[in-house]
Design goal:
Elements: E1 3-9, E2 13-20, E3 25-26, E4 31-34, H1 41-55, E5 61-65, E6 69-70, E7 73-74, H2 89-97, E8 101-105, H3 106-117, E9 126-132, E10 136-142, E11 145-147, E12 156-157, E13 160-161, H4 162-166, H5 168-173, H6 178-196, E14 200-204, E15 223-226, H7 233-242
């Protein structure tokens, strides 16, 4: 199957598009709809179904979720409604849409896309993808192999989850300048570097399109680059998982 449908569920928006999984390119302009609040399972599933219907899609569907997902079952939901925990999201979405559905962690999906089609192509050793958005997602690869569900955004920095200090959402809520926010991101990534010693760090998420505002301010040993697929990486990775 060379084309599959990718859906990327985020804390503020849910976006989707069909993807050519042999090239990593979207086959049509993506559509983005607001994430329901509260982001309860039935409400979110309704948006996913609407997106599939909007494209008239029939075939494999990959869906990302911002939390730990094992075997299609949601285990954590830090930035979503807590009613998601222990829900078999794969089964629920398959029944609601009538399609074959694969569900995986959102940052893992973005990482898969970047490693195959983006900034991670050709890189071996330890590669870390960090997505900065409503929260902080992470995907860790060693010699091209994914270590799933790392969720390093919840590492404690100064007594609180890193994503409470260094996510894009935190920058907006606390009205931080790019310099002050970059200092927080640097503090977080310094801790990650201390733990993992990555060879390459790829910064993704919505803020990646503004990487020139903060990446030059970071002071890490590892090479740090913006995601090549920007904020489409989750959609592409979801489709890859489905295909």
């Amino acid at each position: 199957m060379s084309v599959a449908f990718g859906v990327d569920i985020g804390g503020t928006g849910i976006k989707a598009a069909p993807v050519d999984v042999t090239t990593g390119r979207l086959k049509a302009d993506r559509i983005k709809l607001p994430t329901p609040h509260p982001a309860a399972p039935d409400a979110v599933v309704g948006v996913v179904r609407q997106l599939i219907d909007d494209f008239g899609w029939s075939g494999p569907v990959g869906v990302t979720f911002p939390g730990v997902v094992t075997g299609g079952v949601v285990r954590t939901a830090a930035n979503m409604d807590q009613r998601w925990i222990s829900v078999d999201a794969g089964d629920m979405l398959a029944r609601a849409t009538g399609q074959q559905v694969t569900v995986l962690n959102d940052a893992d999906a973005a990482g898969m896309a970047e490693m195959k089609f983006g900034a991670g192509v050709g890189h071996r050793g330890t590669v870390l993808i960090i997505t900065l958005g409503t929260g902080i997602g992470s995907a860790l690869f060693y010699e091209g192999v994914l270590v799933p569900n790392t969720e390093f955004g919840h590492i404690q920095i100064h007594g609180e989850d890193a994503e409470k200090r260094a996510s894009e959402h935190a920058r907006e809520v606390h009205e931080l300048s790019w310099g002050k926010w970059a200092s927080r991101v640097d503090d977080y990534l310094d801790k990650i570097e201390e733990l993992l010693s990555p060879d390459l760090i790829i910064i993704g998420g919505g803020v990646s399109r503004k990487s020139d505002r903060f990446l030059p301010m970071l002071s890490l040993r590892a090479k740090v680059v913006p995601a090549a697929l920007l904020n489409d990486a989750g959609i592409v990775g979801a489709a890859m998982a489905a295909a």
